[in-house]
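To fix ideas, we quote verbatim one protein's residues and fold tokens.
>
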Amino acid sequence: MKFVPSFAAALLAASAPLPALAQMAAPVPTIAEGHTLLTVTASGETTREPDLALFSAGVTTQGKTASAALSENSTRMAAVIAALRKTGIAERDIQTSNLNLNPVYAQPRRMPDGSYENEDRQIVGYQANNTVSVKQRKLGEYGKVIDALVSAGANQVNGPNFQVDDSDAALDEARTKAMAKARQRAELYARAAGLRVARVVSISESGGYAPQPVMYRKAAMDAVAAPPPPVATGELELSANVTVQFELSP
């Protein structure tokens, strides 16, 4: 029987992975003996009218060669960006977000038995796409901007994603409401248990808002010259969620 030397055994023990539970265990808050730890989760909400709309606009083109597809795309995209500038969008609010060039393959031929041929598919052309992300700060002109983009040759327009440009004050209001609600619940639990709230042990938070985008496609507007699309900005709800640990004493 072979024995591993003590220093080698110690080295092996040190390098062995700790149990997952031991690695992930969070430190337990220290409270006074005889006291109780209470964890409360609460949320606070507030609403604001959006003052910023984010959307994307782009051009997709196809050509028999890569250079032909890219050349046409560049020409049409230059007109789209010029249209954005003409509507009053600032340079800092226009940013390229996607530029790609991909081959277009021929569709595989279907065989008499219903299967498809296994031959390598041939490249029959190329597709180029260029997209910019745009910040629209004058929401009342959003519909006119979209109309101008489509007239300039944009065939992909996605948005808007409404936001509050400076949301700090609104989120602070939501945080204050969330903390007040958490404290109120802690007091309720403490009274029901015949205890009192001694102190706040820890606070953690999460929150925000997620506006839903709306999509516009040029295909729906090609037949006739349509008026600018109506856009309703509505209100945004901003929220903050807090998890608070309270120490309860007799």
Q: What stands out?
A: The helical segments are 6-15, 20-24, 66-86, 142-152, 168-192. The CA atoms of residues 4 and 78 lie 73 Å apart. The radius of gyration is 30 Å.
